[in-house]
Amino acid sequence: MLQLKQIHKVFNEGTPDEKMALQQMDLHLKPGDFMTVIGSNGAGKSTLMNIISGKMMPDLGEIIIDGKNVSAVKENKRSKLIGRVFQDPMAGTAPAMTIEENLAIAYTRTKSRGLQKGVSKNRKVIFQEKLEMLHLGLENRLHAKVGLLSGGERQALSLLMATFTEPKILLLDEHTAALDPSRAELITQLTKEIVEKYQLTTLMVTHNMQQAIDLGNRLIMMDKGQMIFQADEEAKQHLTVEKLLLEFQQIRGEKMNSDKAVLI
Amino acid sequence: MGTAIFGSIEAGAIYALMALGVYLSFRILDFPDLTVDGSFVTGGAVAAVLIVGGTDPFVATVAAMGAGFLAGCVTGLLHTKGKINPLLSGILMMIALYSINLRIMGKSNIPLLSEETVISKLTAFWQGLGIDQALTFFGFVPKTWGILILMLILAFIVKILIDWFLKTDLGLAIRATGNNETMIRSFSADTDTLKILGLGLANALVALSGSLIAQYNGFSDVGMGIGMIVIGLASVIIGEAIFGAKTIIRATLAVVGGAILYRIIVTLALRVEFLETGDMKLITALIVVFALILPKVLDKQRERQRKKKRMLQARKNEYDKRGENLASIKTDS
Ligand SMILES: Nc1ncnc2c1ncn2[C@@H]1O[C@H](COP(=O)(O)OP(=O)(O)OP(=O)(O)O)[C@@H](O)[C@H]1O
Ligand SMILES: [Mg+2]
């Protein structure tokens, strides 16, 4: 479903600030694969996501989604195939617009937007039905401005908006990191439910190792722009946080020095 | 006095179209578009030249809108494809349009008084209806009610069209572009195209207003757009401050109301003995400053009053409680 071939990305090439953000990244996700991505700060995780989504173009390499080479396809066209939830709960929704209007925008992701009514009766029924999945009572607040929702509610809505049109690929970049623990737990739970329900091919970045182990069927660890460890479906079932840390130590010959690597 | 106010409502209804354009760029797209000063004149210039050349005034007015649309699109292109900052894109276009407008007109002023215009045609149409005679009981008799009523109707039709448009799929995407670009891009929208389209529509409305003002005043002048953007902003801000902007429907109504109110305020201000026509721009600036500051002051005052009330309530509760305590002590003893 998603294939990356020999992706390279260098920032500020030829200056003292030169930074190898991604080196020889190869990745292959089968339909329905749910891969979690861990790694210390600056490992290149967000860069990886940005390159898949088309926000950044790689210096070298190919991106293939659903059998099509999309390396040259622009971000806005590519996002017909890709759902994204950002770290910042404010980033995924339009605060001055109502819940139903936001959903209408998400609903038309794969359609061409013309002069038909954004929130029609038919669509409203669909929106209500989908919102019920969140168990937050948002289905009764269709006319509320999204700016009035709490961070957790907004992130749940973002997650729904990114997924309910069943994109080929779902990208989640630390989408629970800005929330308090109970809200984060809620969003994690919803993520699990939704990904399972629609069988979405998913790539999720997280700093929470336990979460990375609990969720999904595959796991990779990145460091300094490279994939340094990966666990397939079989191996992942036997992973623990201790094993992961040990793995890192053996490969890099040093302790994982990430402030954000949480050991819950 | 009556005639002056009447005239300011007439003009206000026509300027409301320009203010609605400014609302689209400033509020919906969040793009401080200074093209307005130029595109307003472009509207007047295109309409005037075509009318003098013998084109039907209605066709000329539509052509003026088209020219405004193009001007807005160019500003959009400068910003999105040329990566020039929004303010600068608008200023560059405004300056460029000054020369272009002169080229279109061929001279700095084109009189239209002896020409058949949209305004003269509408007046004739209206007088044919004989409604003016029926309205004499108002005591105050203007030349005709036609322009006032028809221009108000036009402003409302445009308002309703905007309300409708902003609720379509395309309109929602344009609103989201002004509200959260990251978000709308992740939902496969081409924000560059949406911005260009939005600015085109905004300036089409501005040019429509300019062409009608030229026909209403009986001339098109290359300087008639100076300060137009501030007038548009003043209308939007006054309108929102007085009528509110909770929903789109409310906000567009507020903009139309604000445009008319602005004209009335200026008319009244100019009747003050020591103020001259040349002071109008200063008055406009002051009105905008006032309208920007006033809502904040009012909010603060309301907040203060609420605090006071709460404090009084708290004190009263305390007092009541003490009373109860005293009473209970008394019954104890
Ligand atoms: N636009 C950019 N310009 C220059 N350097 C960049 C840019 N984006 C990222 N980098 C650099 O590339 C490296 C990888 O960054 P990236 O954001 O992918 O890390 P990350 O793994 O997501 O880290 P974190 O866990 O902190 O989010 C970092 O050293 C970063 O400073
Ligand atoms: Mg990151």
UniProtKB/TrEMBL annotation, chain B:
It holds the Pfam family BPD_transp_2. Residues 305-333 are annotated as: Disordered. Keywords: Cell membrane, Membrane, Transmembrane, Transmembrane helix. It is a multi-pass membrane protein. It comes from the Bacteria. Residues 315-324 have a biased composition (Basic and acidic residues). The chain crosses the membrane at residues 6-26, 58-78, 85-104, 145-166, 196-216, 222-244, 251-270, 282-298. It is found in: Cell membrane. This is ABC transport system permease protein. It comes from Cytobacillus purgationiresistens.
